[in-house]
Amino acid sequence: MTEIIYPVWRQRLARSLHVNRSQVQSKYYQVASVCSNGAPKNRTMVFRGFLPDTQSLLSVTDIRSDKIEEWQGENQSRFEICWYFSDSREQYRLAGEVALISDSLEPSYESSVLGNQRKNSLLKQQWSNLSINAKQPFYSSSPKAPFDEDSILPIPEDRLGNQVNNEVNRNITQSNVADHDNDISNNFCVLVFIPYTVDYLDLKSKPQQRCLYDIQDDWKERVVNP
Ligand SMILES: Cc1cc2nc3c(=O)[nH]c(=O)nc-3n(C[C@H](O)[C@H](O)[C@H](O)COP(=O)(O)O)c2cc1C
User: Fold this and answer.
1) Which N-terminal stretch is annotated as signal sequence (predicted)?
2) Does ligand 1 have an atom closer than 6 angstroms to the CB of 41?
3) 72-81 long-range CB contacts below 8 Å, 24 or more apart?
4) The CATH number of the domain where 37 resides is what?
5) How many folded domains does the chain comprise?
6) Model's pTM, two decimal places?
7) Ligand 1: distance of its center to the CA of 1 in Å?
8) pLDDT per residue over 192-223, tens digit each?
């Protein structure tokens, strides 16, 4: 098997994740999109790992959320991630295109790059990584619908196997949840962020260091002034 050699920025990022692993917020980044009227929009998301053997980053979301519409259609799939690691005082800004992976959306990335089998296993794996609490909103009313306590639906019984009692649900461990392989909500969507450029800033080094990387330049590192 050939060993994959990742770009320098990807190796730096893996190291930053390791060095900052004790900080829960190290797994959160801000992701920007552009609305159809040209306005920027920004939100916090959880980093859920790399697409295996690539430098693409994974997050999950609800297909009913505004960001999905913002990222659909021609020339609309652009994103920028801003990610700050507070222990090591490093910032990464990654820009590129996002691919939306869901059974409820028109195939895009998965047909050309992932293939159906890989798409299904990615959806399954990311869904099974979610806690019961994180799964709950996918079964509730749409994001931004007027709040109604009664609309907070319990997760359907058949989606939880034998664990139907709320009290029991609270005690379900992560590994129990991972056992339910076939319960993917139709609202579930995996986002694959495919970077084309990376802007890295290290505030801790003396002097401070800034490096730029571009896929068009074969990810060659360019050290520039901060
Ligand atoms: C710490 C934190 C983590 C979050 N992680 C996610 C996430 O992984 N996926 C997601 O869709 N929303 C996440 N959110 C909520 C989003 O920031 C945002 O409020 C929501 O997705 C609606 O955004 P939209 O209207 O731009 O679609 C998170 C919020 C916080 C504060």
Assistant:
1) none
2) yes
3) 72/100, 72/105, 73/36, 76/34, 76/36, 78/33, 78/34, 79/31, 79/32, 79/33, 79/193, 80/31, 80/32, 81/29, 81/30, 81/31, 81/32, 81/57, 81/193, 81/195
4) 2.30.110.10
5) 1
6) 0.88
7) 38
8) 999 999 999 999 999 999 999 999 999 999 99
